[in-house]
Design a protein that fits this description.
Elements: H1 4-8, E1 14-18, H2 23-34, E2 38-43, H3 46-57, E3 63-67, H4 73-87, E4 92-95, H5 110-138, E5 141-146, H6 163-183, E6 188-195, H7 204-216, H8 230-237, E7 248-251
Parallel strand pairs: 1-2, 1-4, 2-3, 4-5, 5-6, 6-7
Length: 258
């Protein structure tokens, strides 16, 4: 029987975090590193990745900074190849890269719809396929998809108006469930975190505009904080979750419990 400390220990493991250079991705990458995992930080801007990697390495683990557009299969393959060259393995994939476009449904530009769908749902499929092939070969792996409570319910347009974001995150939720079933035979665990409202540079203006309404919908009365995703990310990356797959886990201050 393993101890709790052993179950949560990620020492020597390798975690790839897309969109890991800033915001929620960096928070989760930091949490995984604090649990002992080496980290591959991947996003479009190499400078941001390098800055994040320097900070992560101060925690006593190794970090690799890689620039990539995760909607492009060849670039994801390059990230996988660089990861294997540097570390020889991949244990955890966090599909975090994503964005939103705010507009009423009747005004949503089709090109923006496609852009968001490409990043929020097609890219997780590409990354899961590319890294999943390696996990199948290894006969083990952990995939953590970052959706949103917006993918679990309709949203109040007074505070939120991005139907493409909600649609893409809803697709990611069911992608998680189906991939979990398909790859259980390979000992690959696929789970999904659904954050509630966390203030990031991307949504800072949205929060400032609708803070009163946003906070009114959160029973705990606050937005997500700087440590609120670390624990769940470590749980799903570690042996502590070895009997969990296909799980959809809100981290939202109680927002969908209303």
């Amino acid at each position: 029987m393993a101890s709790v400390k052993a179950l949560f220990d990620l020492s020597g493991r390798v975690s790839v975090v897309t969109g890991g250079a800033t915001g929620l991705g960096l928070q989760m990458a930091t949490g995984l590193a604090e649990a002992g995992s080496n980290i591959v930080v991947c996003s479009r801007k190499l400078e941001n990745c390098e800055q994040a990697a320097r900070g992560i390495e101060k925690l006593g683990v190794k970090a690799l900074a890689l620039a990539a557009d995760v909607t492009q299969p060849d670039q994801v393959e390059a990230v996988k190849d660089a990861t294997l060259k540097a570390f020889g393995r991949v244990d955890v994939l966090v599909n975090n890269a994503g964005r939103a476009w705010v507009a009423p449904p009747e005004e949503m530009p089709l090109d923006r719809w496609q852009q968001i769908m490409d990043l929020n749902i097609t890219a997780p499929f590409i990354c899961s396929q590319v890294f999943g092939r390696e996990m199948i070969r290894q006969k083990r792996g952990k995939i953590i998809n970052i959706a949103s409570i917006a993918g679990l319910q309709g949203r109040n347009p007074k505070a939120y108006s991005s139907i493409v974001y909600s649609t893409s995150k809803g697709a990611l939720v069911n992608f998680t469930r189906d991939l979990a079933i398909k790859w259980a035979q390979h000992n690959i665990h696929v789970n999904c975190i659904c954050p509630g409202f966390f203030v990031t540079p991307i949504n800072q203006k949205l929060f400032e505009k609708g803070a009163e309404q946003i906070l009114r919908e959160i029973p705990l009365g606050r937005t997500g904080g700087a440590d609120d995703l670390k624990g769940i990310a470590v749980l799903l990356a570690s042996d502590a979750s070895n009997f969990m797959t296909g799980a959809i886990i809100p981290v939202d201050g109680g927002a969908i419990a209303w």
